[in-house]
Design brief:
Blueprint (H helix, E strand, L loop, with lengths): L7 H11 L4 H64 L2
Helix pairs in contact: 1-2
Length: 88
């Protein structure tokens, strides 16, 4: 958990307290685990960014559709009002 929070020294302290490993072994172990944690975090960040981009694209399409429908409705209401005013 310390590695996920960025506390490398805390992770080393846990290994020192609970194992009989020497400092060099602990340093190698923590460095390897830290690389794996960083790779996992980077992978999830990439997936999150891809999902965010997809949502933004869909949201933009919906907004354009709403805008287009509103613009068409405005034009048709103006035309309808003009036709109605001209018949009286």
């Amino acid at each position: 958990m310390q590695l996920i929070n960025g506390d490398i020294e805390g992770a080393k302290d846990v290994f020192i307290t609970h194992t009989n490993l020497i400092d060099a072994q602990i340093n190698d172990l923590v460095a390897g685990m830290n690389r794996e944690v960083e790779q996992t975090i980077a992978k999830y960040q990439d997936e999150f960014n891809s999902a965010t981009e997809a949502v933004a694209t869909y949201y933009q399409a919906v907004l354009w559709a709403v805008f287009s429908a509103s613009a068409i409705g405005l034009v048709l209401s103006i035309l309808g009002g003009s036709v109605g005013a001209a018949t009286r």
